[in-house]
Design goal:
This protein is an alpha/beta fold and about 300 residues long. Helices cover about 45% and strands about 20% of the residues. It has helices spanning about 5-15, 25-45, 65-70, 80-95, 105-120, 130-140, 145-155, 170-175, 215-220, 220-225, 265-275, 285-295; strands at about 20-25, 45-50, 60, 60-65, 120-125, 160-165, 185-190, 190-195, 200, 230-235, 255-260, 275-280. The strands form 3 sheets. The chain has a 7-stranded mixed sheet with strand order 1-12-11-10-2-6-7, with helices on both faces. The structure holds magnesium ion. Magnesium ion binds near residues 49, 51, 52, 237 and 238. It catalyses: a ribonucleoside 5'-phosphate + H2O = a ribonucleoside + phosphate.
């Protein structure tokens, strides 16, 4: 082993020793990270969820606003939308989280949810500029170190796909507000469609939490552009996020990092099956940035 790779091993050991880190197979993860290091910046791409992955899961126990939540906090959005949207949330959110329902059945129900929610998105004027005001006033915070991560990826010319089943207009607004809507960042999400100044549903096919995989991406052409970047660092906070890299062609090493905050005991085992590294109530990007330090 060279002196350089011994140093890397020591640094890596230290990263993985953090309190928040849980790993099912440590040797496998170490080998995966060494393979990412070997591939370097040229072979790397990042695929990240947005809500509660790039943003914090909570601040002092209070959940952060999701991208759809930012939208419904806008004063331009009529109260009838907010009420009916909440009714749908109460009905479908338990289904989304139900550990006993099959993925296929959930996916069907998610399509129903988004289709019904989309019907509410009609006929009122909306200027997307207000989204940034809500971010500023409501304090949707990026995870500590998200800024550094995105800036160093931009400096290294490593592409970042933000893949979100949330509202793309809010995703853009948050990243813009924190000055990290950088040229290497590409967002695939649900965007509002407009007819003049009025909201007119959503653009294109719906992305929900159980179709964040190759099918949603086939049409985007994104992965063709990235065909040479076979190594993936994937970040998410829901089990469905673990499938986000399934459309990467000729995938090499795909290292999946999952952030887990609520109902840890109940969900940890399942998270460890889907993610290579699970971070328990870690509201920072320190582990990710530690790995990137070695790779870039
Ligand atoms: Mg999320």
């Amino acid at each position: 082993m060279t002196e350089q790779s011994t140093k890397e091993q020591v640094k890596l050991e230290n990263i993985l020793l953090r309190n928040s880190v849980r790993i099912h197979d440590k040797l496998r993860v170490q080998n995966m990270i060494m393979s990412l290091i070997d591939g370097g910046r040229e072979k790397l791409q990042i695929i990240s969820d947005f809500d509660r992955t790039l943003t914090k899961q909570h601040v002092d126990g209070k959940p952060t606003m999701s991208s759809f939540c930012i939208f419904s906090h806008c004063s331009q959005v009529p109260s009838v939308y907010k009420e009916q949207d909440e009714v749908l949330r109460q009905r479908y959110r338990p289904i989304e989280m139900d550990p006993n329902m099959s993925r296929e059945e959930k996916a069907k129900q998610m399509v129903n949810w988004y289709q019904e929610a989309e019907k509410l998105l009609y006929g009122f004027e909306f200027q997307t500029k207000e989204l940034e005001d809500v971010v500023r006033d409501g304090g949707t915070e990026l995870r500590e170190g998200t800024n550094i991560m995105l800036q160093s990826l931009q400096a290294a010319q490593v592409p970042v796909l933000v893949f979100s089943a949330g509202l793309g207009d809010s995703v853009s607004a948050v990243l813009r507000y924190y000055s990290v809507l950088l040229p290497n960042v590409h967002i695939i999400s649900n965007y509002l469609r407009f007819n003049g100044l009025k909201v007119n549903g959503l653009q294109g096919d719906i992305i929900h939490s159980f179709n964040k995989n190759e099918h949603a991406l086939e049409k985007s052409g994104y992965f063709q552009v990235l065909a040479s970047r076979s190594n993936v660092l994937l970040l998410g906070d829901e089990l469905g996020d673990a499938a986000m890299a399934d459309g990467v062609q000729n995938a090499g090493t795909v290292l999946k990092i999952g952030f887990l905050y609520d109902r840890v005991e109940e969900r940890l085992e399942e998270f460890l099956k889907h993610f290579d590294i699970v971070l328990i109530d870690d509201q920072t990007m320190d582990v990710v940035n530690g790995i990137l330090d070695l790779v870039l």
